[in-house]
Each structure stands twice: as C-alpha cells, then as structure tokens.
Design a protein that fits this description.
By secondary structure, the protein is of the alpha/beta class. The protein contains 13 helices and 9 strands. The protein folds into 2 domains: 137 residues, 3-Layer(aba) Sandwich (Rossmann fold), CATH 3.40.50.720; 110 residues, UDP-galactose 4-epimerase, domain 1 (Alpha-Beta Complex), CATH 3.90.25. Helix 2 links the parallel strand 2 and strand 3.
C-alpha cells in the first residue's frame, strides 16, 4: 500500500494519476487528505480515501496504517511545517511505514531561500527518526512563473528581481512522475535527489519566449527585491505569498534555482517538459 499525503493538492493528484496510469491497483493507493470530500473523484476510481490532518496526529495514525511506502508532500502552511511534518513522521514510525519519500527543496542543505529552513529541519527529523527515507529535493515549478503570464500580457512587461540568475524549472507533472518512479522502485532508502529541469533560463529568456508566442515584445524589467515586493502587494497578492516570491527571485539571482545534474529526467526516463511547451499552454490554452 502506498499513501500519498496532500492528495487533494496539485502535486498529490498528479502523483496518484501517474500511479494509476502505470497500472497500480487503485485499492493499493491511499489518498490522505484533510477533507475527503475534495477527492470524491478519486474514491470513485477505487482509490482509498482517508482523512489525514497534519495537526491531528490521531488521523495520521489511522491514515498511514498498513502503508508500505508513504509520500510525505510538504505542507503548504509555511511557518507551521516543521511541527506538522514531525507529527507525520512520528505517526509513520509508530505504524511501521517501510519507506518515507519527502518532497523537499532543491539544494535544501545550502539554499539561501527562506523556504529552505523548514525543509532542512524536516530532513533532520527524518534522519533522527531512524525510518528509511528518500529525499526528493524538488526545484522550481515552471507553473510558478507561468502564473504571472496574464498580468505580463496585460501590462506588456514581465517583472521580477532574479537578475541574470539561471532557473532550471520543470513542470509540476515532471516532479510528480519522479515521485511515482521512486515509490515504485526498490532500494531508495538513503538517497537524496536534486531534481530540476534539463534546460535553464533567465527571466529575460522567459519574457522573450512569452513575447515570441504572444507575437509582441514583452521585455523583462529587473527590480530591486523591495520594489518587486511592493509591485506584488500592489497587485493584490497576500503579504506572505508576495514575500515568498520576492525572496525566491532574489535566491534565483544567487543560483538557488539552478542545477544541471539531470537527475529528474533520468528518473522519469525522458527529457523534462520544455518551457516553450508550457508557455504555449499558458498563452494559448
């Protein structure tokens, strides 16, 4: 039995879909979610659905029981992740899960990103737990930048504060395939995967590709982190999200979102999805 936490989220759903596409019996997959009603469609396909709230350890014990492998998708509640992940790891240890795969952050051990701290702490919790574990250090999702395409098209400019930093992002579906591949392979305990896209780009490159597909020039304007943060807040983004995006761009300028090891494409057995393909979906989809 394979348990997927955060199964109602975008990544969790894609992992489950990948497992189903590979012929895994849906009755051997557990969608562990805070609100089971959100995955009624998965239940209708035969996937087991169990309530699992990171803040309620009793639900985690029940959700993880019988699991041979567990994909611990990092919580979305930044600032509360360490305590929540500790609850999940302790529950996994208590019920005897055979392997935990954890979705961490690219180069979490040395990343300057503000996001990295909670991932480093979780990796340490896993080491201390004694449980067999594999770390999936996911790089940036290309979709994180594609979300800004409508605004860029509206205003005729793409803004950020990543300077000339190279970003080796990949599609969320690529990372989901990698997670599924690891869950389906033996001998994964103790491994750490630095996962990133095959091809890196700067935000100037990103804007150029956007302009090419839109049929008009879309320049990239590099701002200071403070000015970029102000622009995001002015666009109506919540303060925590705006701060995360500005900090991430600053980290990108320092190389935090770049890796050329190609571990991701090796795991999934194909090249990662090109930026141009994903951009086409954002512009014309």
């Amino acid at each position: 039995m394979i348990v997927i936490t955060g199964a109602s989220g975008q990544l969790g759903r894609l992992v489950i879909q990948t497992l189903l596409d590979r012929g895994i019996d849906p009755a051997s997959i557990v969608a562990a979610v805070r609100n089971p009603a959100r995955v009624a469609d998965l239940a209708a396909r035969g996937v087991l659905v169990r309530e699992a709230d990171y803040d309620r350890p009793a639900t985690l014990l029940a959700a993880f029981r019988g699991a041979r492998k567990l994909l611990l998708i990092s919580s979305s509640e930044i600032g509360r992740r360490v305590a929540q992940h500790r609850n999940a790891i302790e529950a996994a240890r208590e019920v005897g899960v055979g392997l935990i795969a954890y979705t961490s952050l690219l180069h979490a051990d040395r990343s300057p990103l503000g996001l990295a701290g909670e991932h480093r702490a979780t990796e340490q919790l896993l080491r201390e737990s004694g449980l067999p574990a594999v770390i999936l250090r996911n790089g940036w999702y290309t979709e994180n930048y594609l979300a800004s395409v409508p605004a860029a098209l509206q205003h005729g400019v793409f803004i950020g504060c990543a300077a000339d930093g190279r970003i080796a992002s990949a599609a969320r579906a690529d990372y989901a395939e990698a997670a599924a591949a690891v869950l389906l392979q033996d001998g994964q305990a103790g491994k750490v995967y630095e996962l990133a896209g095959d091809d890196a780009y700067t935000l100037a490159d990103f804007a150029a590709e956007l302009g090419r597909q839109a049929g008009r020039a879309i320049p990239y304007v590099n701002l200071s982190e403070a000015d970029f943060l102000d622009a995001l807040l002015g666009a109506g983004l919540p303060q925590p999200l705006a701060e995360l995006l500005a900090d991430s761009d600053t980290g990108a300028a320092q190389g935090a979102l770049f890796d050329d090891g190609r571990a991701l494409s090796t795991l999934i057995g194909r090249p990662t999805t090109p930026l141009a393909v994903l951009m086409d979906g954002a512009v014309n989809g």
